[in-house]
Amino acid sequence: MEPSARALDLLSGPAGVVLRATLAPTERLTHAIPAVGCTVALTTSRLLIIREGSTFRPKTGVREWPLLPSLEIVTGLVRHGSGSLVIRQGRDTTSVFVPIQEWDATLQLIGVLRGRIRRAEADRSAEKG
Description:
The protein contains three helices and seven strands; from the N terminus they run H-H-E-E-E-E-E-E-E-H. By secondary structure, the chain is of the alpha+beta class.
């Protein structure tokens, strides 16, 4: 799944500048979801949250999580026009609200993220065994 047109519009602005500066040379953006006050982006190796105004928040404007087995992403309730996501890795927890129009794309992103984590873990296990 490619990023939605709405997400690409968001990424063509300041969030896109920040994202492009964050990507490693071999890393590729695969999914982008507009959320309330931020954009959720999935690359080939990381999950990122790029806050609106991130260019003014160098330390907190971009949150990132490597795709490791310790990364959890859980959907919450969908009501009042948005659904919630909770992202956890260790003691680090972040919540994001996604407009209902983007909920199907969000569920797809979660499925892809979980699949990549499982594949990476299987590859690591195969290398050890």
